[in-house]
User: Which sequence fits this backbone?
């Protein structure tokens, strides 16, 4: 009987301990500043040491550069004064393809607050909605568009072999480039953000064919010419859909980071040549 009472007492202690373990904060999105979280979806756990390119609908792309440590940022856009401040970044616990970026501007408009909801469609691209509130309150403004980033972050759900995933194109390229001495697009997805607005996702297959998401079924053939590890020229000949047949483009991709950079070039469609420029990144 004594042993039975002792056993019951031990079970009661264990039950209390289990109940206490279950208690704690139920905060869905703790403020992590510039620190790192461990998400299981597309959203990276940290944006430190990354550059994001935001392209609002119908407007020019602007970049936001996050510091390698701490929680400071700088925003640059063509023809505008650079903006700087501090930020916090939180991945949603309910949807780990979504994160919230809160920006507190210190210069030039100290006190201005912005909240950016990021919807990651891959590890380094997606759509966003921004709400900006002037210092001291006042009427908030909103904008939406697409974004890309130069680095894939520390997403736990990324393919460790760096092969593209979540490719919207029908034929998914496979990265087989093992040559570290040159930059190549073969077997990669490349997301381009055009200055002046718009974007396009290319899937470059082995064998010299490519797909594009600018229209369903768009694609054609391509060639590339590398200039070491820093640049590659890609020549595109569209053959589908019928309306795009015989359209051509040349993109000169210049690498400024491990995962992307800037580009210039031109495209000929409807019989007219158009100059192109913007930013590009390898997409998952």
Assistant:
């Amino acid at each position: 009987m004594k042993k039975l009472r002792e056993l019951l007492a031990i079970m009661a202690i264990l039950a209390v301990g289990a109940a206490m373990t279950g208690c704690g904060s139920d905060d869905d999105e703790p403020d992590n500043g510039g620190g790192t979280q461990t998400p299981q979806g597309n959203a990276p756990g940290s944006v430190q040491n990354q550059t994001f390119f935001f392209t609002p609908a119908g407007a020019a792309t602007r970049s936001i550069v996050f510091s390698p440590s701490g929680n400071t940022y700088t925003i640059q856009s063509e023809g505008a004064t650079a903006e700087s401040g501090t930020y916090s970044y939180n991945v949603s616990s309910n949807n780990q393809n979504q994160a919230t970026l809160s920006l507190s501007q210190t210069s030039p408009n100290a006190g201005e607050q912005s909240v950016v909801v990021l919807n990651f469609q891959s590890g380094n691209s997606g759509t966003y909605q921004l709400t900006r509130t002037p210092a001291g309150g006042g009427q908030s403004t909103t904008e939406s568009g697409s974004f890309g980033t130069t680095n894939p972050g520390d997403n736990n759900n990324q393919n460790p072999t760096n092969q593209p995933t979540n490719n919207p194109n029908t034929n998914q390229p496979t990265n087989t480039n093992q040559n570290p001495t040159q930059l190549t697009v073969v077997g990669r997805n490349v997301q381009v953000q055009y200055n002046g607005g718009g974007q396009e996702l290319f899937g470059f297959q082995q064998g010299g064919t490519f797909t594009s998401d600018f229209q369903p079924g768009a694609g054609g053939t391509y060639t590339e010419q590398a200039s070491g590890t820093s640049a590659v020229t890609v020549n595109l000949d569209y053959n589908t859909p019928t309306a795009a047949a015989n359209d051509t483009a040349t993109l000169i991709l210049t690498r400024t980071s491990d995962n992307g950079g800037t580009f210039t070039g031109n495209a000929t469609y409807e019989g007219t040549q158009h100059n192109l420029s913007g930013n590009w990144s390898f997409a998952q």
User: Anything to note?
Assistant: The helical segments are 2-21.
